TrEMBL record:
Domain of life: Eukaryota
Residue ranges constituting the Carboxylesterase type B domain according to the UniProt record: 92-417
Protein name per Swiss-Prot or TrEMBL: Carboxylic ester hydrolase
Record's keyword annotation contains Transferase: no
EC number(s) on file: 3.1.1.-
Recorded family membership: Belongs to the type-B carboxylesterase/lipase family.
Organism expressing this protein natively: Sus scrofa
A Pfam family matched in the record: COesterase
An example molecular function term from Gene Ontology annotations: hydrolase activity
PANTHER family according to UniProt: CARBOXYLESTERASE
Keyword Cytoplasm: no
InterPro entries registered for this protein in UniProt: AB_hydrolase_fold, CarbesteraseB, Carboxylesterase_B_AS, Type-B_Carboxylest/Lipase
Keyword annotations from UniProtKB, A to Z: Hydrolase
Amino acid sequence: MAPRDLTPWGGAPLLSQGSWAPVYFCEFQHQPSFFKDIKLSYLRSDHGEEVPFVFGASIWGSHRSRTGPVHRPLEVGPAAQWPGEPGREATQPEVDTTLGRVRGRQVGVKGTDRLVNVFLGIPFAQPPLGPGRFSAPRPAQSWEGVRDASTAPAMCPQDLERMNNARFVLDGKHQIFPVSEDCLVLNIYSPAEATTGAGRPVMVWFHGGSLVVGAATSHDGSALAAYGDVVVVTVQYRLGLLGFFSTGDKHAPGNWGFLDAVAALRWVQENISPFGGDFNSVTVFGSSAGASIVSALVLSPLAAGLFHRAIAESGVITLPGLLDSNPWPLAQSFADSLACPSTSSAEMLQCLRQKAVEEILLDKKLKTIASYTVDGTFFPKTPKELLREKQFHSVPFLLGVNNHEFGWLIPRGWGILDQMDQINLEDMLAPLKPFVGGPMNTWAGTQMDKPNEKPSRN
C-alpha cells in the first residue's frame, strides 16, 4: 500500500493509522455570536453550532412555505456576515454538463475581491415520482437549451413546522422555500476564476436534520468557496419515510436517502470538472445527520472511488437507534394510517406510490422517524460488522465533536432554561451524564420538536 501524507488537518491529532486509513479527531469550542443574547456565557458550542463557522456565518433558511419560493438574493447570504462591502452580482456564468447547459449567478463575498459562480438546483437524478417513490434514484435526464440555475430549488418533503422551530434564534433571518418531491438536486459554488480543468479541491456537503428535515440551500457555500478556494457542492436527499421507508424485503429494501447521496457523488465525478473542480480530490463532509451519511458512505461499497477524504461533524452512522433491524411493523403502521394494504409488501407499495405527497406529509411518522436498514446493497452488513471486518474505504477521516453537545438543547427540552442562570456548568452537566453513550441522539431529536421560548434572564 502506498504511503499517505499524514499531516494533521489544522493541527487535529492523528488517532489511528494502521494498514487501512488515518483517523483524526477535533473538538470545536466556540459559540456563534447570534446566540449571545439567549445563552449563558459558560455554554460554548452546542450541537451543530460549528456549521456557521464552516460556511462563513451562513443564514439558515426558513422552511414554512410550500408554494412560491422567495428567491434568495445571494448578496445577503453568508457574504452579509463578513466585514466589508456587501456582496455584488456581476454576471450570469454558463457551464456545459453531460446533460445540458446551465446558467447561474456570479456574486461577490464580503471581505474579499474574489467572485463566486453559483449554480442552484441542478438535478442529479430524476424526480422520485410514481414508481420512483421508494425506489433507487434514476439518472437525471438531459434537457434542451440553457437551464436556469439561478434560483433556490424546492426542498424535499418534510415537516415545515419543525424546520421553523429555530427561527427565533436567528431573529427571523430566514428565506422561504417550497417543498416538492422533485428535489434531487445539488447546488454548486465555485471561485469565478476556476475555469474548466482548474482542478480546485471539491467539498460535498450533506446537511443535518435527523434525516427528516433540511435542505441544500440552507447553507450558502459562496463564502467557503471564496475564502477556501474550493468548489463547494451542497446536496439534497430524500427525508423521513420518503427517504428511508422499508418493508424489509425486495419490494422496498430502504435507504433511499443514502442512495441519493451516492447518485450525487457519481454526478460530481462526471460533471464537476467544467465547474473548475477536481474529481480526484473530493471531500465529503456533513454535520449531525449529515455526518452520519458521511460515515455511512465510508462504509458502503457503492461509494467506492467516489470521494477521497471524509469529515464527520457531531455524528456517526453507528449511533444507537438509527438501525432498524425489523422495519416491517413500522411499514404496516404507515400503510394503515394511509388506508393502504398492510399484509402484502407489493400491494402496500403500489398503494403508497399513488398517494398524494400532501397526504403523506400529514402522517406524524414521516416527521419524526428515519431509520436505515441492512438492505444488502448500500449496506451488505451492519456498520459495526463492516468496521470489525475492516470493510471500509481507505480515506483520511476527520471526526469532530463540539465541546458542549446538547448542553443547551437538552435543558431546553426539559424546560429548565430559566434556572440555568443559577447553576454552574458542572451542575448543569451532572444530570446529562446518564444519557451520554445511550439513546441521547434519538431523545434529543424529539426535544427539538418542542416550541421555542427564549429563556428568562432576569
